[in-house]
Amino acid sequence: MRSILRWSLTAAILGTALPTAANPLRYAEDQAPGIINPLFTTTMVEARVNELLFDGLYTDNQDLATTPAVIENGQVDPDGMGMILTLRSDVFWHDGTPIQADDVVFSIESMQNDATLSTEAGRVEWISNAVALDERNVRLEFKSPTFHPQDKLFFKLIPKAQFSSTTVSRTHPFRTQPIGTGPYRLESYNDDNSVTFRANSDYRDGVGIGELVLREVADKSYQAKLIQYESLEALVRVMPQDLAELSKSRKIELYPYQTNSWWFMGFNQQKAPFDDPRVRQALSQMVDVENLLAPIGTGEILSGPYVKSSPFYNHDVAPWSNDGYAAATLLEEAGFLRGDDGMWAKDGEPLSFTLTFHQNLETSQKVVINLQSQLRREGVEVLTEALDEAEWKARIWRQRNFDTLLSQWSFDRNEDVYAQFHSRGERNFSGYSNPRVDELLDQARTASDPYDKKAALRQVHALVREDAPMIFLWTLDSYAALSTQIRNVLIHPFYFFTYVGEWQMQ
Amino acid sequence: MADAVAPKAQPSWKVALLLLQPLASFVATMAGALFFVSALLFFSPGNAADVVAQDEQLRQALVEEWGLDGSVFQQYGAYLTRALGGDFGVSLTYRPGTSVAELMAAKAPDTLFLVLTALFLSVTVGTLVAFWSAGRPNSLSRTAIQWLSVPPVFLVAYLGMVGLDAWAYGSTVEKGLTPPPWFPLLMETSPVKTALAVTVLAFASSALTEIHGTAEREIRRIRNSGYVDAARARGAPTWPHTLSNLLPALTTLVSNRAAFFLGGAIVVEKVFGIHGLGDVLWEACRKRDFPLVLGITLLSAGFVCGIRLLADWVRLALDPRQRGGT
C-alpha cells in the first residue's frame, strides 16, 4: 500500500512537471520593496534594489576605494570649497536618453527641497549649490571645506525629465516605473510581491545575467531551504544556524563578507543608575561577550565603535574583560550592596532594569536570554521587551524612554559615528556627553588630512570605551549563499549588488 | 399542535421595519468597527511617520502632511468623510502612494475565494456528516470530526508542505528532472497550494466541530418534531422537511462563522505564503499604514455585516415565526 502511494505521488509530480525557461537569478528578501525611488529609501531591501537600478556619481571599486561611476573625472577646488564633475558620454537612462548635467543638479535639488520630504536629504546637506555648466559639466559648491568630497557623492541619480519640479511626491508614478542608469531596469512588479528586473542592454560595462527576480520570503529558515531546493539562486545573508547545512551542499557556495555593523548594549544615561559611569563599567565587566556571541555565530569582539578592519579602530584599546570581582568593587563604590539573596541593591532599591530590543534584529532573542541569565548570576535582575519598528522609533528614537537596549548600528564606508556619540548627535539616544569626544568628532568632520581624522577618531574610540555609554559587543561574520551556477561573484559589504553587472550565470 | 398553526400575517410596515432593522445594525457595526480600529491604531505606540523618518524634522513634516497630529476623533472623522465619498486614501508605508482601493482590489479576490470556499466546504461537510451522525450515539464520523480539531493543524499543514517539497525535490530536481510548477509550495502560486489552504481553513480548528455539533442538534430537534412524525406516518421521505427547517439555523451558522473564517484567513495566508488581504493587513499593521488598515477593516466589516444582513433577510423569508407570526 505504501509503495502504491509513493509511486502515485511520484507519478503525480512527474505528470505536472513542466519544462523551465532560461534561468533568472532569484534572490530572497524578507519583504518586497515598498517604494522604488532613491529619494525615499528607508530599508536595506530598497537600498539593494536601488543598487540594481540606479547609479551614483561615484561608487566603490573592488578594493572599496572611491571610483567614478557615471563621471569621467572630478576636479576639486584647491580650497576644498567646490568641485567640477564631467559626466561620461556613454551613460544612458533606461529610456535611452543620455544622462546630463541637469539630471545631477535635479537629483541634488530634489533631495534638498524640504517639500520633497526625502529620507536622503542628509546625504546632500553639505552641498550649498549645484549648477549645470553645460550638458556634461556640473559645478558643486560646498558649505565648508570638504576633504575628499568624492566619498560623499554616492547618492543615486534620477532623471529630471520624469518630474515636473524638484518637489517630488512619494506618490509620483516613478515609484512603480523607475528609470535609472543602473545595470538592471525594472521589468514588472508582480502580484505575488516578487519583482522582476531585466538587464540594461545599454549598460556601459555590460551585464552578465539577463534577469533577476526578487522573491519575498518572510521566513528566513525557509529561505535557506529554498536555496537548497534550487528554487533560489542567492541569499543575501545566511542565518548562522543554516551555515553548516548549506556548506555541505555541492550546489551552493558561501561567500563571507565583512559588514560595517556592530552590536551593542546601550545604557540610558538620563536615568539612574546609568548616569553613574561606575555602574556602566561594572555591568560591562559582568558580561561574558564571547559566551553571548557563540550561540548566534562567529565574529569579532570589539572594544569601540568601529569594526576591526576600519582605519579608525584603536587596536591599543582592549574590550572590557569579564571580571566579576572588579565589577563588584565598582558597584560597591557606587553605593550598591549585595544582599543575602545575592542581588545588588542601593537604598533598598534592587539593581534591576529592562533590556529593550528590536524584534527584527536577527537572533537577538538568544542574546537577550543569555544576557539575562549572565546578569542574574551576577546579582542583577533584567526584564526584557521586544518592540516592532514603529514602536522602536517612537519609544527609543523619539521619546528615549528605555533603560537599556540591545541593537546594532550599520554604517556606510564613511563610518561616521558623530550621530551616535556627539552630544548633539541625532542618534545619541543614551544621552552620552563628553566635551572632549565632541571636540574630536568635530575635528574629524573638518579634517583635511586623513591622518588627523584617523588620530582623532582613534581617540574617540578610547574615550567612549572608558566612558562605557554602551557595551560594545561584536561585528558578526556575514555570509551570502549563491548557487554554484553563479560565477565571478563579488559582494559589496553594505549594498550587496554593487558589482552585480560582473556576475555570470553558467 | 403548534406546528400545524398557520402564522398570523403582519402588516407590511412591520415587515419593512423588520427588514430595515438589520440594515441599521449593518451601518452601526461598520461605523463602530472603523472607530474601534482607528482608536487601536491611534493608541498603538508609533505611527507611519515613525516608520519612515530617520530624523525628527522629517517625522514632524510627515505627521503634518498625513494628518497624524489630530485627535482620534478628528482622524476618524476625516477618514470616514473621505471613505463615504469613495476615497479610501493612499498607502503610506506598505506601498507608499498606491491607492488603498487599488491594493484591496488586487488582493481581495484571493482572500474572498479562500474564505467563501472554506466556508462552503465547512458548512457542507459539517451538515452532511450531521445528517449521518444524528441519532447515532457512537458515530465514528462524529469522533473523527472531534479529533480533527485537536492537533495544531496549521503546524501540521506547514510541516506537511515542507515534507511535500522535500519529496518533490528528491523525486525530480535531484534526479535531473524538471520539478512540477507548484514546487516549492510556499513560494509558487498554484492550485495545489490554494487547495491545501482552503482545506486547512475549512477543517482546522473548532469551526467544523461547531458547525457539525449545531447542525446535529438541530436535526435531532427537527426529527423529533410533529410535522416530521406526520410525514413519517404518511410514509413520505423526511429529509426534505428536515432540510427546509434546518436552513434558517444553517444561515445563522454561516453568518456567525464568516467573521471567524475571515480572521483565520490572516493566519492561513501567512502560513501558506498567499499574498491576499490578510497578508497585506498584517504588514500594514506592522508599518502603521492607517489608511490601508482602515480600508481593509471597512472591507472586512462590510463583508461580514453583508453576510449577516443577507442571513437576516433569508431567515425572515424562510421562517414565518421570525416575521412575528405565532
Task: Report what the structure shows.
- The complex is a heterodimer of chains A (506) and B (326).
- Chain A contains 13 helices and 24 strands.
- Chain A is α+β, with helices and mostly antiparallel strands and 506 residues long.
- In chain A, strands 1, 8, 9, 10, 11, 12, 14 and 22 form an eight-stranded mixed sheet that branches. In chain A, strands 19-18-20-13-21 form a five-stranded mixed sheet, with helices on both faces. Chain A has a four-stranded antiparallel sheet with strand order 4-5-7-6, with helices on one face.
- The longest helix of chain A has 18 residues.
- Chain B starts with 11 loop residues before the first helix and ends in an 8-residue tail after the last helix.
Mean residue pLDDT of chain B: 84
SSE order of chain B, one letter for each helix or strand: HHHHHHHHHHHHH
Tell me the Rg of chain B in angstroms.
25 Å
Counted by DSSP, the helix tally of chain B is: 13
Query: What is the straight-line distance between the termini of chain A?
Result: 43 Å
Helix share, percent of chain A: 25-40%
Tally of separate helices of chain A: 13
Average pLDDT for all residues of chain A = 91
| Oligomeric state of the chains in view | heterodimer
Range of strand content of chain B = under 5%
Secondary structure category of chain B: mainly alpha
List segments of chain B where confidence is low: pLDDT < 50 over at least 5 consecutive residues. none
- Unreliable stretches of chain A (pLDDT < 50, length at least 5) are 13-21
